[in-house]
User: What shape does this take?
Amino acid sequence: MKLIQGIGIKKTFGGIKALSDVDFEVEEGTIVGLIGPNGAGKTTLFNIVAGAFAPTSGTVRFEGREITGWPAYKVCRSGIARTFQVTRPFGEMSCLENVAVSVVNRQSGISRSQWTTLAAECLETVGLSDFRATEARHLNVIQKKRLEIARALATRPRLLMLDEVLGGLNSQEVQESIDFIRGLRDEKGLTVLWIEHVMGAIMQATEKVIVLDQGSVLTTGTPESVVNDPRVIQAYLGD
Amino acid sequence: MKRYRNKFIYGAGLVLFAILPWTLGVYNQHVLIVCLFYTMMAASWNLLAGYTGQISFGHAAFAGIGAYASGILAVKAGLHPWVGVIAGTGLAALFGLLVGMLCLRMGGIYLSLTTLGFSEILHIVINNEYEITRGTMGLQVPGLMVDYSKLAYFYIFLAATLFTLVVVYKLVHSNAGLNFRAVQNDERAASALGVDVVRVRLLAFTVSSGLAGLAGALYGHYMLLITPHIPSLDQQFLVLSMTVIGGLGSFVGPVIGAFCLEILSEYIRAWGEYHVLVFGLIALIVARFAPKGLVGIYKARWGKSRPAAA
Assistant: This one.
């Protein structure tokens, strides 16, 4: 079943075409990579799916239902969570409170002791248990990225959209992260749409890769077929 | 153990404060009552500005709505002042909701501009609707009790102030409070995590306006004369200065700011309107060099780092 689907998505900012006629789909229970050179429109596509802004034209469907132009909070509550490439923690709130924001908006009327437990569990899954009471602005970049993931997971999504979560990690940490994300899919049944520049991770973790270039889909396929595609190589390296 | 000790200290302080007016003359009793009025104003403005980051310049205007609504109902419709106070509070909250619906979607500077405009419009209407409001002459209104007593007013204001503080405390420490702070920290991240930003702001704005209406209504029935000075920008900036100097976004900050500035302004009354200017300057300096106000300075100097929130 197609969990999320975009049809003919177009986005212009003033006179600049960021996306033109993008079609894509993600099957339920898969991990799909979204790659492409800088400025290809990957994050713009994320923002449109997540409701940060509406597309100029085109349709987004989630679980068969049209969600085009829904505000971000509504998209989130319907089961789509995203992380930000440049992390956006609530700096003056503790890590636990950061995650609690997700929890209380998922389950309104939940008591303080309940959200404390749930938020603490989420922090534990990303290995931030020791930082429960730490204000988020004191975390380092890598910890902030983990916090982003914890907050996203705490909204209990069906689709998780990750925007470059591996940047700055060493190879062992990359491997741990890949295992973690695969674990989310295998154990919790999450579907993952993943923007990543670390190609090794895309090769290892994804079943399907969508390549964006200059605002449109260049090709879609298995990771092996995509990296061997001369058009993809050309898009990355230039003529 | 520490928790009980704190509770004991607060309780004892409150009892001492409640006894205090018995030892004071009429003038000082008046100063205390005005302090309590400003505490209500500053604490409710802080709910909006300090906890959700929305700077409204219409807080004095909402106090004015409370005062005039209650006063007019008492004078023209002959309603009991207490009924008027409740109606004034409700009307201020309703106006808050309407103005909020108009401009909160835009956020940021637009709320400030719209509330500034709203405040001026209200001022003009009050000045010109002479038959109803008595314009700059002021509207004479009945008191809250048959026999005028400063002590009785003191306890009414003390109760209303405690009510305001409890509402602010409960709200900030509820799940809605998490949303308030999330919105203040980063709107986009908050909405991506399921926070309905507009609704959160609207809630804070409505509650804050209603509490200002309550303060204004009580103040009118205490002064027995409602003038356009209540909903004036002078008052607005005084409340702003109190909150900023005391500590924006802290629970006790506005209380400290309100008491310090009101008592100080009694001493420099001779300067006339210049005292607002002086407070404005102090507020600017505080905002620049100690953005968390007196409370922030205290915490940085003598406070221990906060224990785990969980």
Q: What stands out?
A: Strands of chain A lie at 2-13, 16-27, 31-35, 57-62, 65-66, 80-82, 159-163, 191-195, 208-213, 216-221.
